[in-house]
Each structure stands twice: as structure tokens, then as C-alpha cells.
Known about the structure:
This protein has 284 residues and is mainly α. It has helices spanning 2-5, 35-39, 48-53, 55-68, 74-83, 93-100, 119-129, 131-175, 183-202, 206-212, 226-244, 249-267, 271-277, and strands at residues 6-10, 15-20, 23-28, 32-34, 105-108, 114-118. A hairpin with a 5-residue loop joins strand 5 and strand 6 (114-118). Helix 9 (183-202) packs across helix 12 (249-267).
Amino acid sequence: xxxxxxxxxxxxxxxxxxxxxxxxxxxxxxxxxxxxxxxxxxxxxxxxxxxxxxxxxxxxxxxxxxxxxxxxxxxxxxxxxxxxxxxxxxxxxxxxxxxxxxxxxxxxxxxxxxxxxxxxxxxxxxxxxxxxxxxxxxxxxxxxxxxxxxxxxxxxxxxxxxxxxxxxxxxxxxxxxxxxxxxxxxxxxxxxxxxxxxxxxxxxxxxxxxxxxxxxxxxxxxxxxxxxxxxxxxxxxxxxxxxxxxxxxxxxxxxxxxxxxxxxxxxxxxxxxxxxxxxxxxxx
Length: 284
């Protein structure tokens, strides 16, 4: 039942969508949430301007802006606050922003246009929809942030490996590749160097791994865990140093294998690494 009521799904590279009680709610990358989308879950005729007429709403927005916005226009705010709650009082989001210089609310045009609010304000607005809606919105927003942090951590680890691979391949190019080699010769040198690291860390070459996993996709490093990726990044740097020192391939392989064994023992006990891997270390 909970899965049907609230879930997270991607929308674009810049935005995400959380589905709350059957309604798709747009979440922008700056943690602004679409009030226009949220309004669809409200029973009866209700508009954002109705919410803005409420004195409690105006007071809350004023406090939020005071904390987060040094350029907030308190003079205009005082005028608006004195009229809030009166039958004659009515203000739109655009007017609110134009008069007070507010940053917590904004009206956007375009494909994903509408009224957006900072998450703090959006959570308050959600209470006007229903208490249940607010609870699910907070829960799914936090899940979305957790997923983004997890993805960010993975991207950082992959990029670290790619950067170190560039250092590694540059060392090979300047120290192992004679002039005027063919493309095939150059690729063979790179492949053999990559397999030195594969053998030292995984105990098999890339070709051996593919033969054992012929029905799968990707490569041996795509299936590495966090500890192995960290170790691999360190080994690539060390192998570049060994190459500069002129060590023979077999000697480098022996040293790298000893380093891999030593580092993996340490990394598998590291609390931060274990936290990044989460349940992967338990095989879940």
C-alpha cells in the first residue's frame, strides 16, 4: 500500500518527480517543489492565492525570508501582513515576490512551469492538502535526497578511477611505447598493463572474466565493489610510479599483488567504506 501511495521516479536531467497519493509532484534540483502539482491532490476549489491570503501563511513566509533572505523588503511585508486575512486581501505569488523580494516562492514559465516553493515552505503548504500528504511528501523527498547522495558517491568513485587511469596510461605511453608503433601494438600494451592490475586485484584477466561471464554485460571492473574500486585507483597510481622507475612487468605484478592483498584487508574493515557499500558487503 505504501508503494502505491508514494514513490520516486526520474523526470529529466534537471528535475525529479515524486508520486504522492497518485499525483506526480515535480522537484527541481534547487530543492524547490511544485505547489501547482501538489494542488491537484486537494479536494474542492482551492488556489495558491487562497493559501497566501491566510495570516498564518504570511507570518510563516516572513519568518522564513528573515532567516534566509538578507534583501527581504520588510516595509512591503509589514503592509501585506496588516491586510492578510481580510476579505478584501488578495495577492498572487508574482506580486508577493515583486513587492517583498522574496526568494522562497517563485513562479516559473515553460514546460515545467507553475508555482514552486523551497522545500521548507512546500512542506507547510502540504499540510493544507492533508496531514497524510505532508507525511508522504517529506518521506519521499528524503528518499530522493538519499538516492542522489548515493549516486553522487558512485560518480565520484568512478571519476576517481577514470582520472587515475589517465595518469596510468600516460605513464605507459611515455615509458613503454617506442616511437612509430601501430595502433594494434599500442592497444596491446595498454591491454597488458590493464591486465596486470586485473591479475593483481582480481586474480584473472579481462578475457578470462568475459569467458566466465559470457551471458552478462559490462566488464570485470563494472562489477567491482567500493573497496576494490578504491584499491584499483591506488594501484593505478603505484603502477605508474613503478613504470617510471623502470621495473619489469613481472616484478610490478608481484608488488601490486602484495599491495592489493594488504590494502583489501584494511579497506574491508574500514567503517566509511563499509557505509558506502551498505548492504553489498553482506551480499544483499
